[in-house]
Amino acid sequence: MRSSRHLALAGLAALLFAVPAPAQTLVRGRLLDASTDGVIAEGTIVISAVRGQWQTATRTDSAGNFEFADVGLGAFRLRASRLGYRETIGDLALESDSVVSVELRMAAQSVVLQPVTVMTRSGQRMSAQMRGFMERMQTGHGRFITRSEILGRRAGRVTDVLTGIPNLRPSSGRMGTSGHPMSRGSSTAQCQMMFIIDGVRMIHPMPTAPRVRPAEFVIDDYVSPSEIDGIEVYRGEADTPSQ
To answer: Would you give the DSSP letter of residue 85?
Structure first.
């Protein structure tokens, strides 16, 4: 009796081990450039069941290799993507336990980038005076000198900057701290210049005593080139914008 009982248990054990396990397949592959046959590293490979919602993904290594373990049987779809390449899609049918090797090829795709990329934005805001200066400069009316042009000339005096403008020249009057008064016109018909700084018209100095000729206004007595953000020059008061 003990012998037959033991055989019965052994037969049961053999019966349990004989139950077949679900079929699984190992899918290995390589991602290559279609035109050069070079490997494509860091590519994204997605395998998904054609029927159902199962899917998983991996990335190719430095040699372009990828691997999916324990993939079931049935119809699957492989999708490869990588920046700079067109996406590649292929179908795969797995029918039995095995190791399946696949090769995916991707064609290069030109990537259109924006012509200008803003890396940082300054926290400084343009003043109302500078906004008006830029808007008037866009109209093309008058002569404009920007701060970069002023600094590029390395001028020590404002009069040196203004001398480069046609029909403007230093007059023969008194010198200021570092320059002459400025006038407009020819040497025989000169007109005194009027200066406006930050919207404020600069008034000529008053005479120091009766019957004494007032001192001539010299812009260099009031401002230096390094302090100026922009210069506007107009032919006369009638042409000067109200702003």
So the answer is: B
User: What domain range includes position 45?
Assistant: 2-106
DSSP 81: E
The residue with greater pLDDT, 218 or 239, is 218
| Sequence-separated (6 or more) residues with CB below 8 Å from residue 14 | none
| Domain shared by 15 and 83, yes or no | yes
pLDDT 10s digits, 148-189: 888 888 888 888 887 777 767 665 554 444 455 455 555 444
Contact 177, 217 (CB under 8 A): no
Q: What is the CATH number of the domain that holds 203?
A: 2.170.130
Nearest C-alpha neighbor of 101 from the set 177, 30, 172: 30
CATH number of the domain that residue 49 is part of: 2.60.40.10
Query: With 50 as the cut, is the pLDDT of residue 227 above it?
Result: yes
Residues 132 and 234 occupy one common structural domain? yes
pTM listed for this prediction? 0.40
Q: How many domains does the chain have?
A: 2
Count CB atoms within 10 A of the CB of residue 47: 20
In a domain, 203, yes or no: yes
94-118 residue pLDDT tens: 877 778 889 999 998 876 655 655 5
Q: Give the phi and the psi of residue 172 in degrees, each rounded to 5.
A: -90, 15
